[in-house]
Design goal:
Blueprint (H helix, E strand, L loop, with lengths): L1 H31 L14 E2 L5 H5 L28 E14 L4 E19 L3 E23 L2 E26 L2 E21 L8 E24 L5 E9 L2 E16 L5 E19 L2 E10 L3 E10 L5 E2 L2 E2 L5 E12 L2 E16 L2 E14 L9 E13 L7 E14 L10
Antiparallel strand pairs: 1-4, 2-3, 2-19, 3-4, 4-5, 5-6, 6-7, 7-8, 7-9, 8-11, 9-10, 10-13, 11-12, 12-15, 13-14, 15-16, 16-17, 17-18, 18-19
Length: 428
């Protein structure tokens, strides 16, 4: 008997060791890749990434009031209290974008790790936790503008950026009542964003080219709290409500600046002439705004469910080293649902957002619809494996006022593995 128990313990240790190894691998992937290709990612901390997993994304982005025990809810930690099994989820993201303005268009694509999460009961039916890693924001753009100025022909402005922020999180959900739970999410945010601005004079040797490089690295803790309440109705139906809130967060940050003039030789190699400004390890803060999420969901006997979320973020208080950006308060509405039958779950939804981008007198919108499918218990052997597909088709921005319109397709491939890690062996 002692020998058999030690085998079970080793299985748990191997699982945690594998999870730790994959976490380390995921960090290297997140540091080495940029998942955004949007010129708008130059504002704020970059393009804000979805905090939901594949099942949330395919259902319009809802999740605040969703307590699906077969998947992890990373949006509202209070729902974890209703999870009774161990679940592991991993997802990969891909994106294809068509960028268009009033006089040009181009295409771009990207791919990266989407998320990585492990949830498990601490005290069954009382307290469950989740740990994981996922991106928070992404910056990735390369924009060139050609212009003329007071007799100086062919001036080239080049804007480039890459990087982003990610987070390790430790989420907890605790039941206060059979139908009521609270949650707390503690996240360690980290990352680096590099910005580069260049002015070049390709046909004029009377002027030096100039380049400004700024690198910002930040890391600190962020917290949010959640509530979840579910009301049982007749015939196994239920109505659920959820809420999540976070106060403003100050991230400790460091700034490095290098500004210099340069020329190019006949082979195109750059030759630095002199430095204009150098700033190393300047300490400061990045102030992230408070946000709120509210959600409601109606579920019918575990066959289908419909829900809606409303999100609000106060981006007007955003600051980076004491400087505000041209950001507006954002809000979004998400609606979606799920229908489950035998070994398949089908999901669909839509969303509309007034983004934080307020440019040239216009607050840009982001809207689209989503759909997806989960193939449930694809293999008969344990651990049960679900394969998840999520698609998002949307549009952000406009071609008016010399702005850019983005038409995008986003795809998430996810795997869900559950049931086996912390199950106690049974003996006859």
């Amino acid at each position: 008997m002692k020998f058999l128990i030690s085998i079970a313990d080793c299985r748990i240790n191997r699982t945690l060791l594998l999870f730790g190894f994959l976490q380390a691998l995921a960090v290297s992937v997140l540091f080495g890749q940029t998942s955004s290709v949007s010129p708008y990612s130059r504002y704020g901390i970059g393009e804000i990434k979805s905090q939901g997993l594949s099942h949330h994304r395919s259902a319009g982005g809802i999740g605040t009031a969703w307590d699906d025990q077969g998947h992890i809810n990373t949006i509202n930690s209070a729902t974890l209290a209703f999870d009774t099994i161990t679940i592991f989820e991993v997802g990969l993201d891909a994106e294809w974008v068509q960028l268009s303005s009033s006089n040009s268009s181009s295409n771009a694509s990207s791919g990266t790790l989407g998320y990585f999460s492990l949830a498990f009961p601490v005290i069954k039916n009382k307290w469950s936790s989740a740990i994981g890693l996922q991106p928070v924001s992404s910056t990735g753009y390369n924009v060139t503008i050609n212009d003329n100025y007071e007799g100086i022909e062919n001036i080239k402005y080049i804007y480039e950026g890459k990087g982003g922020f990610s987070k390790f999180y430790f989420n907890n959900g605790v039941k206060l009542h059979p139908n009521l739970s609270i949650g707390l999410s503690a996240s360690f945010m980290f990352g680096t964003i590099d910005y580069q601005k260049s002015v070049e004079f390709p046909t004029n040797e009377d002027y030096f080219n100039s380049r400004y490089i700024e690198g910002i690295t930040a890391n600190d803790f962020q917290f949010d709290a959640g509530l979840f309440y579910t009301k049982n109705l007749k015939n196994q139906n239920k109505l659920s409500f959820g809420a999540v809130a976070a106060i403003p967060t100050k991230l400790s940050a460091r700034q490095n600046v290098y500004w210099f003039n340069y020329t190019k030789n006949i082979f195109g190699f750059e030759i630095i002439k002199d430095s204009v400004q150098t700033l190393s390890d300047n300490s400061g803060e990045i102030i992230l705004p408070m946000y709120y999420r509210f959600g409601v969901m109606y579920s019918k006997a575990n066959n289908w469910r419909l829900g809606a979320d409303f999100n609000y973020t106060d981006w007007t208080n955003f600051e980076k080293f004491g400087v505000k950006d041209s950001l507006a308060n954002s809000y979004s509405l998400h609606m979606g649902g799920e229908y489950s039958k035998e070994k398949f779950s089908f999901r669909a939804g839509g969303y509309y957002e007034k983004s934080f981008l307020d440019l040239r007198g216009q607050q840009l919108t982001d809207m689209g619809f989503t759909f997806g499918i989960s193939i449930v218990k694809l293999f008969s052997i344990k651990p049960p494996v679900n394969i998840n597909f999520a698609f998002m088709l949307g549009q952000r921005g406009t071609e008016e006022s010399d702005l850019i319109k983005e038409q995008y397709t986003r795809f998430t491939f996810g795997l869900t593995i559950s049931d086996i890690w912390f199950m106690k062996p049974k003996y006859d």
